[in-house]
Design a protein that fits this description.
Helix content: 10-25%
Strand content: 15-25%
Distance between the termini: 37 Å
Number of helices: 8
Number of strands: 26
Radius of gyration: 23 Å
Shape: globular
Strand order of the largest sheet: 12-11-10-20-21-22-24-25
Structural class: alpha+beta
Length: 536
């Protein structure tokens, strides 16, 4: 259990001054991400208030760092972010825990953190865990307090290999203070597991691509090859026997119909990566319940369904996870394109538990912002579950078995409120290599869905029991990429130039101290900071 201390402003101020004088360029906001092969590499990113060296030292034993790697840095457009450093560690051993520290000998290193590399890439075999959280931003409009760090800590108790986020990390993507607080609240987890977000409507600006605060703070893969944007707004990575694709509903809407270019890029990614599990996540929902007076957003808000749903059906994507609406929804397997209505705003159920014939669509927007009360869930065609509780999603993949648990979270009791289990045909392990041929998806899925729901919603859920499924006749042709390779769709971001200098160290060190040293809750730092600046 975490212990939080609330000290006087005088003590904190003196502590900050001492810390600043001793280490003006000490790394902070250390965070991990995937930009290449997830089994043999990881990317480390951090900030420093001034220009400093960009080095990571690491090894497989605590406090022992026989290996070092160097990278690049640039000065952020927002001077409060200081200098942003990034190093990609390569040549690592799969499924191995490493210990590391970021910084340099002259200016000092970060505390020691640890991470574990992914399993070897394989079309069929893989054992790992991950979490999904969305809409974690505080919501001052409705008086909601800061819940994100408590909910993130609860999700971390499941020991995920990595963390997905559905976007709306902050209230205003152009507001520097919001990003500073978010990074401080998040870095205790993001320094230990790759944090892979999708961009939300609140995260954008200023500008698009490399000029946006979101893109400067995160080091993510770039979408390349046909219909790629060469930005980090949408991207993919592979992990074990799964491919994960993050799409953008906020940028790059180009195409003959909205988002057709992203859909064509997605089609290429899924064709070249014939993994057993296919998971797509994006911010704005494909399907959701629209509540009166716009309390919740409408489905298909950006008219993305007509372009995206046919690709989901063609490749039989297993899960599509979205956020944006601040509650939890899960729909029965759906296949609107296969049923002739890809632009539908409502799910086209293939039957409760028929996972072999449809995609499970979910909305998860309960990681911190004000949530929509469950009594407003009402009835939505094709929906299996609805809850107004704060929550996060926990996933476990063990080869042919995927289990999803939805956990209610702070300030509610940390209990399971929904779960599904999908069981596919057991296949021989098939390590991925550059010459892998076409994927004939012949999974015979068996559903052992054991849902539980404690919410008072109007949806009727008949999932349960066992379903022996007919083989899926769809084929995903193409050549498989090596997992997380720096080729089509997953390339390491290039170095950004370093052309500016100077900034206020206290602006960024004060909130960072609140997290790293647990002096005080981060929301107490903001008025304290303002009073210190006024006194200066």
């Amino acid at each position: 259990m975490k212990t939080r201390f609330l000290l006087s402003g005088t003590v904190i101020f003196l502590s900050v001054l001492t810390f600043c004088a001793a280490s003006a360029a000490l790394p902070f906001y250390v965070r991990l991400s995937f930009t290449s092969d997830t089994s043999t590499s990881i990317t480390v990113t951090w900030n420093t208030p001034e220009q400093a060296g960009t080095t990571v030292r690491y090894g497989t034993s605590p406090g022992n760092y026989p290996d070092t790697a160097t990278g690049t840095s640039f000065e952020a457009d927002a001077e409060q972010f200081g200098h942003i450093h990034s190093v990609t560690l390569t040549g690592l051993d799969p499924s191995t825990t490493y210990y590391y520290a970021a910084g340099d000998d002259e200016d000092g290193f970060s505390p020691e953190y640890e991470f574990t590399t992914g399993p070897p890439p394989d079309e069929n075999c893989g054992v790992f865990k991950f979490t999904y959280l969305g809409d974690n931003r505080p919501d001052a409009t409705f008086g909601a307090g800061q819940n994100w760090d408590q909910i993130l800590d609860q999700s971390w108790n499941h020991s995920p290999n990595f963390v997905l986020n559905g976007g709306d990390l902050v209230i205003d993507g152009e507001d520097i203070e919001g990003w500073i607080k978010f990074m401080a609240w998040t870095s205790n987890v993001s320094a230990r597991a790759a944090f892979m977000p999708a961009i939300g409507n609140h995260d954008t600006g200023p500008g698009e691509g490399d000029t946006a605060n979101y893109n400067q703070l995160f080091t993510l893969p770039r979408s390349t090859c046909d219909h790629g944007s060469d930005t980090e707004d949408y991207y993919y990575f592979t992990f074990g026997n799964a491919v994960f694709v993050s799409l953008s509903t906020e940028t790059f809407e180009q195409g003959d119909i909205p988002f057709q270019d992203q859909a064509d890029w997605l089609d290429g990614v899924l064709t070249r990566n014939p993994a057993k599990w296919k998971i797509v996540y994006l911010h704005k929902p494909i399907y959701t319940q629209e509540v009166l007076f716009e309390i919740s957003h409408k489905p298909n808000e950006e008219e993305q369904n007509e372009a995206l749903v046919p690709v989901m059906d063609e490749h039989h994507v297993d899960l599509v996870i979205t956020s944006h609406n601040h509650w939890y929804e899960r729909f029965h397997p759906s296949a609107c394109a296969d049923m002739g209505d890809p632009a539908s705003d409502q799910a086209c159920s293939t039957g409760a538990g028929n996972f072999e014939t449809g995609t499970v669509y979910m909305v998860s927007g309960g990681a911190g912002a004000f949530t929509i009360p469950g009594l407003l869930c009402g009835f939505e065609p094709g929906r299996a579950r609805c809850s107004g509780e704060h929550h996060y999603l926990f996933f476990s993949i063990e080869n042919e078995v995927l289990t999803m648990e939805t956990w209610a979270a702070y300030p509610q009791a940390n209990d399971i409120i929904d779960s599904i289990t999908i069981v596919k045909e057991k296949d021989e392990c098939k390590p991925v290599d550059a010459d892998a041929g076409a994927d004939a998806d012949t999974d015979s899925d068996t559903d052992t869905d054991t849902d539980t729901d404690v919410d008072t919603d109007a949806d009727q859920d008949t999932d349960g029991g066992s379903y022996i499924n007919a083989p899926d006749e769809k084929e995903d042709g193409g050549v498989s990429e090596e997992s997380g390779s720096a080729s089509c769709g997953c390339s390491t971001p290039g170095a950004r130039s370093d052309t500016w200098s100077g900034w206020d160290m206290l602006q960024i060190l004060l909130p960072n101290l609140s997290h790293s040293f647990r002096f005080v809750n981060p929301w107490f730092i903001v008025p304290l900071k303002q009073s210190i600046y006024s006194a200066m």
